[in-house]
Amino acid sequence: MKHFRHNMIRAGLEALYYTGAHRVLRPLCSGIGTIFMLHNVRPGRGDSFQPNRHLEVTPHFLRATLRHLRQLGIDLVPMDELHRRFRARDFGRRFACITLDDGYRDNRDFALPVFEEFGAPFTVFVTSDFAESNGRLWWVTLERVIAAQSRLDIAIGGQDLRFDIQTPDAKQAAFDRIHDLLRGLPNGGDLDATMTALCLRYGVDETAAARELCLSWDELRSFAAHPLVTIGAHGMTHCMLSRQSELVAAHELTGSRARIQDELQQAVDHLAYPYGDKASAGPREFALAKAVGYKTAVTTRPGMMFAEYADHLTALPRISLNGHYQDDRLLPVLTSGAATAMWNGFRRVAAA
């Protein structure tokens, strides 16, 4: 099903490109700016089973994106400048912010040199438990467990499931099914408990991925001192806030900021909601982020910036630079706003 969805999205982007409709729609749909979302930036891998491929782009594609934005005359600005422009209603020039979620080491090793080439500022939203090296990158751990097995047994939400996963296609199908079931669990702690049980069954350290892939506090201190880098918060545990009580959700937002500020000795004014879709962050979370003092908060809801977002600064949309669609030809489609406008039914603001 997900493969079909990816193909449909790709077909839609290609259609906008080949018909030239994105050029016609650009004046209507491009808005005043864009926030781009990335996760991993690193050279491509040749593995036949890569279920998290959508979360990574190559340095080449990041470079092509920045070059395209420069050619369009778009200002590349940090989140503080985005906030200033909205507060001052300063919309004379289009802008773009580049953001990266979770705090991966490749953001420093592979993305930073590209940003330096263009003098482009960017924001890294750090999950404090990942920097602490005891967080759980469960989607990466799930990929590793499935990759190493030919058969998988797992109990999810009262269901005992068994998967024959001897081929890459079977592994992908199992990953998609388990991923969706885990994301659909109603209680905030059920996902963690399920993954803990799975890791115990197969002898996997569920915190190893964070230690291997994410920047530690010591690494973040030097990284955060770079003039192009802004550090934002991404929760303490990377949980789905909407599945938590209001007290726990507020603690995730305030605790992550406090820990980052304490470790890095700098202000943390910007937030990215973990997962960030409608199922994970909605009006309650938007209000909480504003109440605890974040200047801005970004979602993963697709969309461009319009002036009306001045009243919704803790519900900002982003454009995903998705690893499935790394094609330089499609960059003009993404920056035109045509694709997200169609996705949103041509609503300028989707903050409900």
Summed up:
This protein is of the alpha/beta class and 352 residues long. The chain has helices at residues 2-19, 21-29, 59-71, 79-88, 106-118, 128-131, 138-148, 168-183, 190-202, 208-213, 217-224, 246-264, 283-291, 331-336, 338-343, and strands at 33-38, 40-41, 56-57, 75-76, 95-102, 122-126, 151-156, 159-164, 229-233, 270-272, 296-302, 316-320.
Could you characterize what this model shows?
The protein is an alpha/beta fold. It contains 15 helices and 12 strands. The protein has helices at residues 2-19, 21-29, 59-71, 79-88, 106-118, 128-131, 138-148, 168-183, 190-202, 208-213, 217-224, 246-264, 283-291, 331-336, 338-343, and strands at 33-38, 40-41, 56-57, 75-76, 95-102, 122-126, 151-156, 159-164, 229-233, 270-272, 296-302, 316-320. Strands 1, 4, 5, 6, 9, 10, 11 and 12 form an 8-stranded parallel sheet that branches. A two-stranded parallel ribbon has the order 2-3. Helix 3 (59-71) runs parallel beside helix 5 (106-118) and helix 7 (138-148) runs parallel beside helix 9. The longest helix is centred in the last third of the chain and has 19 residues, at 246-264.
Topology:
Layout lengths: L1 H18 L1 H9 L3 E6 L1 E2 L14 E2 L1 H13 L3 E2 L2 H10 L6 E8 L3 H13 L3 E5 L1 H4 L6 H11 L2 E6 L2 E6 L3 H16 L6 H13 L5 H6 L3 H8 L4 E5 L12 H19 L5 E3 L10 H9 L4 E7 L13 E5 L10 H6 L1 H6 L9
Parallel strand pairs: 1-5, 1-12, 2-3, 4-5, 5-6, 6-9, 10-11, 11-12
Antiparallel strand pairs: 7-8
Q: How far apart are the first and last residues' alpha carbons, in Å?
A: 27 Å
Number of domains: 2
Binned strand content:
15-25%
Q: Strand pairing plus helix content: what structural class?
A: alpha/beta
Q: SSE string, helix = H, strand = E? A: HHEEEHEHEHEHHEEHHHHEHEHEEHH
Name the CATH superfamily assignment of the largest domain.
Glycoside hydrolase/deacetylase
CATH class of the largest domain: Alpha Beta
Rg over alpha carbons: 20 Å
The biggest sheet amounts to:
8 strands, parallel
Q: Tell me the helix content.
A: 40-55%
How many β-strand stretches?
12
The backbone outline, from C-alpha atoms, is: globular
**Any guess at the CATH architecture of the largest domain?**
Alpha-Beta Barrel
Our count of helices gives 15
Task: Report the CATH topology name of the largest domain.
Answer: TIM Barrel
Low-confidence blocks of residues: none
Mean pLDDT: 95
